[in-house]
Amino acid sequence: MTTTINDINQAGNHRLVALDELKPGVPYRVLHEGTGILLCLVEGTVHAVHDTCTHEDISLSLGVLCEHRLRCPLHGSQFDIRTGKVLDEPAEADLPVFDVSIVDGWVCI
């Protein structure tokens, strides 16, 4: 789900982006094996969730991140980026989350 510095054994070794590319509070979209993943650096911790809203097929990278709440740009559904849990409708399904590790300055899943 989330980490600041973790053992590589807790996550895979798929490098996504250099850690210094992430800006606090600014969602960062990457593609990994055809899947959009949204990375969010909040309070020194990197979180990774699926980039597509579970209510409508839209990239959450276009949404607004406020602390740990990510708001969908289309209908305003809100998700907790730490857990993927829906916080506000109209979405009903949680977002998939990814285990993250930081290895040699790279964000990895």
TrEMBL record:
The keyword Iron applies. SUPFAM superfamilies: ISP domain (SSF50022). GO terms for molecular function: 2 iron, 2 sulfur cluster binding; dioxygenase activity; metal ion binding. Keywords: 2Fe-2S, Dioxygenase, Iron, Iron-sulfur, Metal-binding, Oxidoreductase. The keyword Coiled coil does not apply. Residues 14-109 form the Rieske domain. InterPro entries: Rieske_2Fe-2S, Rieske_2Fe-2S_sf. Signal peptide: none annotated. CDD domains: Rieske_RO_ferredoxin (cd03528). PANTHER family: 3-PHENYLPROPIONATE_CINNAMIC ACID DIOXYGENASE FERREDOXIN SUBUNIT (PTHR21496:SF23), FERREDOXIN-RELATED (PTHR21496). This is Toluene 1,2-dioxygenase system ferredoxin subunit. It comes from Granulosicoccus antarcticus IMCC3135. The gene is todB.
